[in-house]
Each structure stands twice: as structure tokens, then as C-alpha cells.
Amino acid sequence: xxxxxxxxxxxxxxxxxxxxxxxxxxxxxxxxxxxxxxxxxxxxxxxxxxxxxxxxxxxxxxxxxxxxxxxxxxxxxxxxxxxxxxxxxxxxxxxxxxxxxxxxxxxxxxxxxxxxxxxxxxxxxxxxxxxxxxxxxxxxxxxxxxxxxxxxxxxxxxxxxxxxxxxxxxxxxxxxxxxxxxxxxxxxxxxxxxxxxxxxxxxxxxxxxxxxxxxxxxxxxxxxxxxxxxxxxxxxxxxxxxxxxxxxxxxxxxxxxxxxxxxxxxxxxxxxxxxxxxxxxxxxxxxxxxxxxxxxxxxxxxxxxxxxxxxxxxxxxxxxxxxxx
Length: 325
Description:
The chain is mainly α. The protein folds into 2 domains: 7-88, Alpha-Beta Plaits (2-Layer Sandwich); 107-324, Rhomboid-like (Rhomboid-like fold). The protein has helices at residues 23-32, 46-54, 77-88, 107-125, 133-137, 141-145, 162-183, 185-206, 217-232, 243-263, 274-290, 300-305, 308-324; strands at residues 7-8, 17-18, 34-39, 60-64, 67-72, 139-140, 212-213. The strands form 3 sheets. A 3-stranded antiparallel beta sheet has the order 3-5-4. A hairpin with a 2-residue loop joins β4 (60-64) and β5. The radius of gyration is 28 Å and the shape is elongated. Residues 1-30 and 90-95 have low confidence and may be disordered.
């Protein structure tokens, strides 16, 4: 059903208003009036409506399965089209709609991430892991410069205390259930682990001797960067049609930046590794921007096919650490 909201010429000294055509006239308008502009949303036609009103050209607003249209009587079509072209050039561009989630739900990745985060604490609690396991894998600036390259990844599975572990576990579940539907869990977490490794490497190499760091928060801030840029890569227009559309596309990246500013800078807490958070977010953004391989979220590679990469990197790093102990 096409709905029509025609403009009625204002009386002298009054203001124009929109009203509904009588039901009997709706079908005849739909068949005989000429479309002069169209848009995905009715607010995109505001410029056209104002231009026609300024010239005293009667018009109507019609809606069909393709969006909204400005229609005019056939006798005014040539004048109206000339006016529209004068205002908009070749016509009204229709912005790209936001994509819909096509990946997996992320619950499988969430459970796997939780299992990894709690693996070493669980083994230590059962007496199956030596107390020295933290020393084997902690991010140590001096040790990394001496060649302990595994220390860029092994700190991701170590935490200082239970509250630290619980907080990162909660955020990991939330990010897993966000990344999976939009980017595909395997693809997203591959970028996250790679970005976290780069971030830890940069942070430790720039730190002084005696600096030590651990925790999964580097990867979580990298996940914000991966998600924000990944959403933009799903078809964001180079020239958004208005502020609202620009905000809709950039909101995920803006939310990640806001989270970084609110919770990643430590608030004066000395134990918070601000550098790891900043490097994590930056690495997530830059790695996703520079990555030429972008599988479709609905495809097997994005959902599960790439999963051996992040799992293999973490397992390999810890195997290296154990063998070197």
C-alpha cells in the first residue's frame, strides 16, 4: 500500500501543512503522478520539498518498497524536474543502508575464550601448574629485549587477582557476542590476538627494565578497534548523507574510543597498564585497516575456518615458554 501525504498550498499569511489524500484519490495519484526524486528515508527529501514549496509547485509524498518518492502532477513534471536538478544536480543519492548481522552468534567463541582465561588459574588451583607459571609467561620488558618473544602473547592468559580475571572475563564474553554476529568469530579473534601481540610487543619494547605486565585487557581494547573499523569496512559511504548517517556508521568505533577514555586510562591507578590499553586499541584499528583479507561474515572462514590461527599462536607461545623455562 502506497501512502500519500500531499503538500497543500498555504493561504495568504499562513503556513503549509501536510494532510492525507482521500482514500478514493490515492490510487489515481499513484498511477498518474510523476516521480521527481526518491530517497531511502523521508528526511532525505526535505531539500526537494522546500525547493518545490518555494516555487509554489504542488507535490505529494509517496512510499513504496523502494523507499520514499516526491511526486508531482504530470503537467508540472518538467518544471519540477528542472527545479530538483537545479538543487540536487543529477538527483538525490540514496545512502547505503546499514548491514545486518550475518556471522555467528559468538557464544562458541565466548565459551572458548572463557576456557582459555580460566585454564591456568584452574590448573594452579588444582595444584597441576607450578607457581612459577606466571614468571614463565608474564610480559617482562627486559626479558623480551633479551629474546623471549613468546612474552608478547603469553601475558594474555595471566591475571594478577580474581577481580582482574572476572572483569576481563565479563568483557570478553560481551565482545565475543558482538564480534561474532558482525565480523565472524574466527576472523575477528584472529585480528584481536595478532593486534594484542603487536601491542604488547610495542608496549614492552618501549618500557624500562623491570617493567612487567599481564592480563587480557590489551586484547579487549584491540577488540574494540577491530570491531569499529570492521563495521566501517562493511560498506560505509565515503560521503555520508547527513550527520545522522555518519553517526550510525561511526558509532561502534566511537564507543570503543569512549570506553578507552573512560576505563583504559586508569584514573590514576598505578597498577593499570595504560600503555597496553592504548597500544591495544591502536593496533586493532591499524591492523584491521591494513588487512587486505576480509572474508564475508557469513562464510566458513570468518565463522570457524580461521580459528586455528589465534589458538595456534597462543598454544605455540605457551609451549615455547614452557620449553624455555
